[in-house]
Amino acid sequence: RPQDAVGFANVLFLAVPWEEVKDALSAAGVMNGKTLISCVNPFGPRGLEVGLNTSAAEEISRLVPDAAVVEAFNTTFATILHSRAHLFGGNMPTVFYCGDDRDAKSHAAELIRDAGLQPVDAGALENARYIEPLAMLMMELGRSHRMGSDIALRLMSPAGATGLVKGADLLARSFVGVFANAHGAATGESVLAEDFVAYLPYSRYPIHGRGKYEDWMKQFRSGFSNFQCDIDELIDDGMRVAVRWTWSGTHTGNLLGIAPTNRTIEFTETHLLRISGGRIAEDHVSANLLDLLDQLGTTQFAAA
Question: What predicted TM-score, i.e. pTM, was given to this entire model?
Fold first, then answer.
C-alpha cells in the first residue's frame, strides 16, 4: 500500500500523470518531514496545464505542506534512467533540481549523482516554472520530431571557467577556499559532512569529525605566513572529485613540531573527495612527504 511505503521511506518519489496527482497524494497519506521528489510534469491534451504563475511542483507542495518538495528528473526520459550503460560516453546528462529545503535538495542531488547523472541546482521551488516547459520541449523533440527517447540535456561550461555548474566541482572549490585559503562565502558546515573523515599523510590516524578537521587545518595554516593554495587540476565524475593542488607559504610558525625555518615552501597534494548528501564526506590525500621534508631541511615530522 502507498501508506506503507511512505511510512518506511525518508525520501519519496511522485511520478504519476498530472491528472492523478491528487488521488496519489491522498492514497499516500501523511508525509510529515519526508522529502518528496516530484517528477510530475503538468501535461494535458493541449500542452502545459499550468505555467507562468505557478508549476506542478508548487501545487504539489501546497497539497502536502508538511513535506519538503523537490522537483527533479522532469526533463530526463525513462530510457536514460533505466540504462545502466552510459549512452553518451563520459558526458553525463544534466538533471535540474529545485526546492526550498536545503536538506531535501541535498538528498535529491545525491540520488542524481548515484544515478550517474549531473545534478544542477536550479534554485527555489518556484523555478520549476522554467523546468517544466523545458520538459515539454523534450517531449516535442522526442515524439513529434522523432528523435526518440534516448536524447538528453547537457549543461556545459568552457574549460577553465570558474562558473562551474557541477555541485561536486563547486564543493571542491569551496573546500579549498574555506580550509586552505581561509576565505570565501562558504562555511565549513556547508562544505563538509558533520561526520567527515580525512586521511592525511601527515597523520598516522584518520581525523574524524568536521570540527576536529577544522581545528587541524587552522593549526597547519598557522605554521605559515602568506599561505596560499591553487588548484592545478580538477576531475569530477559526478560521484567523486579528484583534485590536485599546490600550496605555498613561508614557514614562520610551528609546523607539526618543526620549528620555524623561514623557508619558502611549495608543495603539491592530490585529494580524492567522496560526496554524500551534498557535502564532502571523505578526503583521501596523497603527497610526496620526502619532498616537503627536504624543503624544510629535516627528515621527519616531530608530531605524527
Answer: 0.58
Domain count, the chain: 2
Q: Could you give the CA distance from residue 209 to residue 127 in angstroms, rounded to a whole number?
A: 35
- Give residue 258's domain range: 167-296
The residue out of 144, 159, 191 marking a domain boundary is: 144
Measured between alpha carbons, how far is 270 from 131 in angstroms, rounded to an integer? Answer: 37
Is 150 part of a structural domain of the chain?
no
Give me the half-sphere count of Cα atoms (radius 13 Å) on the Cβ side of residue 219. Answer: 12
Grid cell for residue 67: 513535506
Residue 248 makes CB contacts below 8 A (sequence gap 6+) with: 226, 227, 228, 229, 264, 265, 266, 267
CB 54 within 8 A of CB 80: no
Nearest to 11 by CA among 103, 88, 80, 90: 103
Q: Do the beta carbons of residue 248 and residue 266 sit within 8 Å?
A: yes
Interval 89-147: pLDDT, tens? 556 788 999 999 988 998 898 888 778 788 888 999 999 999 999 999 999 999 888 89
The C-alpha atoms of residue 81 and residue 13 are separated, in whole angstroms, by 14
